Amino acid sequence: MLNIVLFGPPGAGKGTQSTRLLEKYGLVHLSTGDILRAEMNAGTALGLQAKALIEKGELVPDEVVIGMIDNKISSSANKNGFIFDGFPRTTPQAKALDVVLTNKGTGISCMLSLEVPEEELITRLLGRGAVSGRADDQDQNTIINRIKVYNEQTLPLKDYYKAQGKYVAIEGVGTVDSIFESLCEAIDGVSA
Ligand code: B4P
């Protein structure tokens, strides 16, 4: 199985590139952000809990996100593998993911990290906020808090995957096509 963690700060291009990668490699897309937004739109109890946190730029509790991912992996048997988009975001999430995949006789193939400077992230997210209606993209202070939370809680995962020899840095500034090519080269190198 090919199991890819697509990593990077908010606005790095994870969702954008995932859409293309899953088509090319026939993978299952697992975006915790998308799952949480679907719960918010459906007005479920989980969605209401998530909305309050997401609109402040905070993370949703680990146990909630881990449970969602566990369900999704279990209900996607016999596939080529997964793209994990926006997950894991904390060390407990990464450890839980390793346990779930090990129990399925598989593991993470690589962590592809999209590297984008902070000013560019803010520009992209405000740009998306102007058209998407996403509350967490419309307020600059919320965006700055998301980046702060990323630096404090998510960035340490680079070292987690580096220690396993799975971290690959990808230049995340450029055209969507050129970044897609870099990602494919890295994946083909890992799966060759
Ligand atoms: P996510 O849905 O994961 O949102 P994101 O990180 O903001 O977006 P993404 O990174 O996918 O967007 P993209 O760059 O593609 O998370 C939202 C919230 O949900 C989190 O803040 C958190 O509260 C919660 N959450 C999610 N997962 C969680 C977890 N595991 N644990 C706890 N909480 C969790 O796109 C951004 C913009 O850039 C777009 O407008 C795009 O068009 C543009 N863009 C992309 N590539 C570009 C390029 N090369 N050049 C110029 N613009 C580009």
Plain-language structure description:
With 192 residues, the chain is an alpha/beta fold. The protein has a single domain, classed as Rossmann fold, CATH 3.40.50. Helix content is 58%, strand content 14%. The protein is built from nine helices and five strands. It has helices at residues 14-25, 32-42, 45-54, 62-74, 91-103, 118-132, 140-154, 157-162, 176-191; strands at residues 2-7, 28-31, 81-85, 110-115, 167-171. A five-stranded parallel beta sheet has the order 2-3-1-4-5, sandwiched between helices. Helix 4 runs parallel beside helix 5 (91-103) and helix 6 crosses helix 7 (140-154).
Secondary-structure topology with pairs:
Layout: E1 2-7, H1 14-25, E2 28-31, H2 32-42, H3 45-54, H4 62-74, E3 81-85, H5 91-103, E4 110-115, H6 118-132, H7 140-154, H8 157-162, E5 167-171, H9 176-191
Parallel strand pairs: 1-3, 1-4, 2-3, 4-5
Largest sheet: 5 strands, parallel
Which compounds are bound in this model?
BIS(adenosine)-5'-tetraphosphate
Helical residue percent band: 55-70%
**What fold name goes in the CATH topology slot?**
Rossmann fold
Number of domains: 1
What percentage of amino acids are in beta strands? Answer: 5-15%
The CATH class, by name, is Alpha Beta
Helical run tally: 9
The mean pLDDT is 94
- The CATH H-level homologous superfamily: P-loop containing nucleotide triphosphate hydrolases
| Uncertain stretches of 5 or more adjacent residues | none
Q: How far apart, in Å, are the first and last alpha carbons?
A: 13 Å
